[in-house]
From TrEMBL:
<feature type="binding site">
    <location>
        <position position="36"/>
    </location>
    <ligand>
        <name>substrate</name>
    </ligand>
</feature>
<dbReference type="InterPro" id="IPR027417">
    <property type="entry name" value="P-loop_NTPase"/>
</dbReference>
<feature type="binding site">
    <location>
        <position position="142"/>
    </location>
    <ligand>
        <name>substrate</name>
    </ligand>
</feature>
<protein>
    <recommendedName>
        <fullName>Shikimate kinase</fullName>
        <ecNumber>2.7.1.71</ecNumber>
    </recommendedName>
</protein>
<keyword id="KW-0057">Aromatic amino acid biosynthesis</keyword>
<keyword id="KW-0547">Nucleotide-binding</keyword>
<dbReference type="GO" id="GO:0009423">
    <property type="term" value="P:chorismate biosynthetic process"/>
</dbReference>
<feature type="binding site">
    <location>
        <position position="124"/>
    </location>
    <ligand>
        <name>ATP</name>
    </ligand>
</feature>
<keyword id="KW-0418">Kinase</keyword>
<dbReference type="GO" id="GO:0004765">
    <property type="term" value="F:shikimate kinase activity"/>
</dbReference>
<feature type="binding site">
    <location>
        <position position="18"/>
    </location>
    <ligand>
        <name>Mg(2+)</name>
    </ligand>
</feature>
<comment type="similarity">
    <text>Belongs to the shikimate kinase family.</text>
</comment>
<comment type="subunit">
    <text>Monomer.</text>
</comment>
<dbReference type="GO" id="GO:0000287">
    <property type="term" value="F:magnesium ion binding"/>
</dbReference>
<dbReference type="Pfam" id="PF01202">
    <property type="entry name" value="SKI"/>
</dbReference>
<feature type="binding site">
    <location>
        <position position="60"/>
    </location>
    <ligand>
        <name>substrate</name>
    </ligand>
</feature>
<dbReference type="GO" id="GO:0008652">
    <property type="term" value="P:amino acid biosynthetic process"/>
</dbReference>
Length: 172
């Protein structure tokens, strides 16, 4: 492992991206960043309000820009929003990041383990209505993309964020 690993975490809602980013950053004494938080800072409102007031296309635009900036600026552990990989230009930016020595980790998770983390609150607009069915549909559609953009796949089912962080470290 290099002295300053640069790692991007991708995966569906409930895969534990932010928690694992926190664990990795603590382990490696690196900064942690989250593109959802960056988008909220730029928009001045929560992700759910951006979806509601401005629509998903506007959110994706802000998200793509947040990822682009973070990949250039951030030298630590970066968690992407679950749908960030859908943007073709983001897929290209991740390929470039990997070519430059960065590692992209897909945190794989089953519905059973994602559901309790996702919960049934209002903060994830794409899962409103029937969260379990929506999550499953979204994962089926996105799995090939997560696998394509990632250099490492780590299954998070049944293990703690600290154990996921350990697995990632071993995979580097
Ligand atoms: C989304 C995931 C969310 C957030 C937004 C859209 C998605 O992030 O970016 O609600 O499309 O999967 P998390 O993956 O952190 O929940």
């Amino acid at each position: 492992m290099s002295a300053r690993p640069r790692v991007v975490l991708v995966g569906p809602p409930g895969s534990g991206k932010s928690t694992v980013a926190h664990a990795l950053a603590g382990r490696w004494h690196l900064a942690q960043r989250d593109t959802d938080t960056d988008v909220e800072a730029v928009a001045g409102k929560p992700v759910a309000d951006i979806f509601l007031e401005d629509g998903e296309p506007r959110f994706r635009e802000l998200e793509h820009e947040a990822v682009r900036v973070a990949l250039v600026e951030h030298d630590g552990v970066l968690a992407l929003g679950g749908g960030a990989v859908l943007h073709a230009a983001t897929q290209d930016a991740l390929a470039e990041y990997r070519a430059g020595g960065g590692v992209v980790v897909f945190l794989d998770v089953s519905l059973k383990h994602a559901a309790p983390r996702v919960g049934f609150n209002q903060s994830r607009p794409l899962l409103l209505g029937n969260p379990r069915a929506r999550w499953q549909a979204l994962m089926t559609e996105r799995r090939p993309v997560y696998e394509r953009v990632a250099s490492v796949v780590v299954s998070t089912d049944g293990i703690t964020p600290a154990q996921v962080a350990e697995r990632i470290e071993h995979a580097l």
